[in-house]
């Protein structure tokens, strides 16, 4: 006993001595996203290409916040979508710099095409995957269905179970990626909303020089695109027999990454005191039953293992810190005494009788001579469903039962699903409305054969108040949100039945949430980037089924796509394709000048100088650094029959344009309309001031009201002619997000912005005055 005590004292003294020589660390209380950003800032990457998607969005936000304070020099590039962000990162890596990114869910899938190119051509970078459920249906909470799509792209994958591990793994990941024996891009995956947003105690290096010293200078001697004395060809096509040789080399590099991870993790332990093995093993020395879980769920299971040990049951927990390369040898060693193991997976491999890792675990155990460990598999926690203490107990019970029986009675199943109750099926609250219910008979649109334009007759607005709304009350929009007054005013000018498609965004999120919907007529949702293509398919199917006599629907059916929250950035390509094909439909964009549904990040519609969560204002930065996109003019260049702008502040103007839009969509082809709407929450303005602010935007000529009918531009409201024009700064002063632009230190930015507003206004007036422009 005395010798054991003396040994413990010597070990404690040695540990204390080691800690005294370690670099200084500070204690904080932060989330996983904050720690990913902190690690990136301390490393001081050259560049980050990004696109906002929940729950990874915060990583770029925190980095932008740090940049406004001058805490790093990373070039932050807001891409037009995740596919674009992956391209930005690949180009930057090919140019020889250090590159960083973060994404989630369908954003990861959207960039997936690009990711094997990066690993196949061996350019390192670090990508944080903040795991989230893959649509559909849409779910923004955390599971591992996105992570599993990354298993076959040739990237080493590290896992982080808590914010501390997020910080540490991000530092380790770069060393692994750049190692001469690896040279591969590396992914760090952690649980969306569980780890990404929940705050925990974290230690980090007080001096970023410690981190930079650990990761070291960028390795030299590798080819890149910026060496004129050594021109290279990157990514030529490669036929057999060369591709198999390339893939073999990449495969060998992947397996070496597992060994390099161990070396780097050992070095990291010496400066941090934190040890990361390929497997996180808890009480596995003599375990006979165990659960196998990824990331945050494993922590819950450890408490249950302790309780079972107190009852004499030899229980343990296995949780990998790396799943690519798959730590087969370590798993075999950890499972040598197991009678049964229960693997829980937050994603399914549909039709495969278990998720992806179930089969990898089974294959690994099968390679052990004489091994008889029973494997039980359950899919759990999808869509962010919580994993509680009782759930961990149930998992251990399944393992214990299998150990006692020597087999799994049900080898694979779902856990936590519930059967539906027909008696609780949702019932309609409102009777369906269609046809004449949405026909006022007060709106007349007739072609003018002499001018080639449309004559529109509309009644006073009060005459249309009895016309039912298309969207029922009870949606969850913020107070003062301008989306629904704007949409409903537009819909007042549309007669008859509609099919409406909403891209992902605020308007979609706040009007539908299973099993409820605020939509009175048929509603479709598709991904952020693909609404226009989706609705064009529905339009063409409508006309084809009518032609075949399969459906009996009136000719006044109208198809409308509603987009906003930056949807005309990531969705611009499909929208232009739809326009060039000239399908008979309306694309209506509500412009709130940002990605408001993910937390007010900048979009390409955000004007210069405006503050968002990714264009902060501080001593080193003064809001968005480039001008806003003129979507209406871009869409006009596709030569569609009708393009317009509008706002709720000028209701008669918008009603007329809605009526024209319907006629053109039913008779000529595609229509694009852009309505400016207020977002008090993110514009930092009073809830009741929305109409005043958008009216000021029109009167400042920032958002002119006009239409382009068969290629001819017509300004429908001219504030100069009415003697109502105001200075741009008078409009900016109404919003908290832009007040800084009226201060002397931002005079240069204000001048640039006001000059661009004036230039665009003068060009528009020239087009108004000359039909050939």
From TrEMBL:
Residues 39-265 form the Pyruvate flavodoxin/ferredoxin oxidoreductase pyrimidine binding domain. Keywords: 4Fe-4S, Electron transport, Iron, Iron-sulfur, Metal-binding, Oxidoreductase, Pyruvate, Transport. GO terms for molecular function: 4 iron, 4 sulfur cluster binding; oxidoreductase activity; thiamine pyrophosphate binding. It comes from Aneurinibacillus migulanus (Bacillus migulanus). It comes from the Bacteria. Residues 556-661 form the Thiamine pyrophosphate enzyme TPP-binding domain. Belongs to the pyruvate:ferredoxin/flavodoxin oxidoreductase family. This is Pyruvate synthase. PANTHER family: PYRUVATE-FLAVODOXIN OXIDOREDUCTASE-RELATED. Coiled coil: none annotated. Pfam families: PFOR_II, POR_N, TPP_enzyme_C. Signal peptide: none annotated. Gene3D superfamilies: 3.40.50.920, 3.40.50.970. Residues 287-391 form the Pyruvate:ferredoxin oxidoreductase core domain. GO terms for biological process: response to oxidative stress.
